[in-house]
Amino acid sequence: MMKQWFFKITDFAEDLLNDLDKLDQWPEQVKQMQRNWIGKSHGAHFSFKIQGNDQEIKVYTTRPETVFGVKFVALSPFHPVLSTLSLGPELNQKIQDMA
């Protein structure tokens, strides 16, 4: 990884968005591009219980009204919960191959 500065924009999203309106000299089109780049979204956090297990998978969505239509949850092969589940040797090997 390259050495560089990393900014956690999400920690400052509200301030950045509010202060865009103070930039009177900037074209509105550029300010709108900045709003889109900052990408603040509103939504909900909730959890899915894992069947046969006491763990949960926490998710975030900007469309909480669609949660009742969820049929499955797809996880990255790097998700930490996968290492704690008994999925069987064949499925575990497939996950390792994807990672």
Provide a concise account of the structure shown:
This protein is α+β, with helices and mostly antiparallel strands. Helix content is 33%, strand content 12%.
Question: Topology of this protein?
Answer:
Elements: H1 9-20, H2 28-38, E1 44-49, E2 56-61, H3 89-98
Antiparallel strand pairs: 1-2
Please provide a written account of the structure:
The chain has 99 residues and is α+β, with helices and mostly antiparallel strands. It has helices spanning 9-20, 28-38, 89-98, and strands spanning 44-49, 56-61. A two-stranded antiparallel sheet has the order 1-2. The two termini are 19 Å apart.
Radius of gyration: 20 Å
Structural class: alpha+beta
For the terminal residues, how far apart are their CA atoms? 19 Å
Helical stretch count? 3
**Percentage of helical residues?**
25-40%
Describe the sheet with the most strands.
2 strands, antiparallel
- Read across the widest sheet, the strand sequence of neighbours is 1-2
The overall pLDDT, averaged over residues, is 85
Low-confidence blocks of residues: none
What shape does the CA trace take? elongated
What labels describe this entry?
alpha+beta; 33% helix; two-stranded antiparallel sheet; 99 residues
